[in-house]
Amino acid sequence: EPHHTLAVRHASDVVALVAFLLSGLIVGALVSSVREERSRAERRATEALFLNRTTERFISREPIDRTLAGLAEALLGFFGLVSCDISTSVGVGRAGTEDPGPVAGQTLSIPLVTPSGSFGALTVVRATSEDPLTPPELGLLHTLAAQTALAIERAALDGEVRATRIESEAN
Q1: What would the pLDDT profile of 17-57 be if each residue is shown by its tens digit?
Q2: Can you tell me the distance from the alpha carbon of 41 to that of 36, in angstroms, rounded to the nearest whole number?
Q3: Burial class (CB in 10 A: 0-12, 13-18, 19+), 7
Q4: H or E stretch including 135?
């Protein structure tokens, strides 16, 4: 008989061939979905670690300017940004080139808002040579903006408490 051909002489061989083909397709689809889930899990773990480090930075008692500068620098590296600017009423955090000038790219400005008011904006710029920000990345940026707003509000309230304490001690 000729070898290495697809000539099938018996009906049972056709059934076996179709069964092998189907099992190969099913296994391939399962392996693909497992790889995608693994990739998502790794991305979520990385994001959770980044959020954890950011939260630790916010609850530390270092000055808000230094905290915002550290956050801007961390965002620059984590998202592959050209520049990051956190402008607030109580401090400023910037990272990137000193004078980026007119940078072509995706610019996103997220307001830093809490229920008690607005505290500024988080503005990020990603170069056009990079892929655009994905929905999970945008969600993470919005979460970080909300945390930043809460940290700024806490710093402002801490300042008010200190001022009130000093005033009451003076009286």
Answers
A1: 899 999 999 999 999 999 999 999 998 998 889 888 888 88
A2: 9
A3: exposed
A4: helix 135-170
Work out the number of other CB atoms within 10 angstroms of the CB of residue 39. Answer: 10
Q: Which residue has the tokens 């001022």?
A: 163
Question: Full-prediction pTM beyond 0.85?
Answer: no
Two tokens at 66? 């230094």
> What are the start-end ranges of the E strands in the chain?
83-88, 92-96, 105-114, 117-127
Give the tokens for residue 170: 């003076």
Q: What angle do CA 26, 13, 8 make, to 5 degrees?
A: 115
**The pLDDT of residue 103:** 56
Quick: pLDDT tens for 76-104: 888 888 888 888 876 656 665 445 455 56
Give 137-170 as a 3 state SS string. HHHHHHHHHHHHHHHHHHHHHHHHHHHHHHHHHH
Q: What is the per-residue pLDDT for 156?
A: 81
Q: What is d(CA 64, CA 48) in angstroms, rounded to the nearest whole number? A: 22
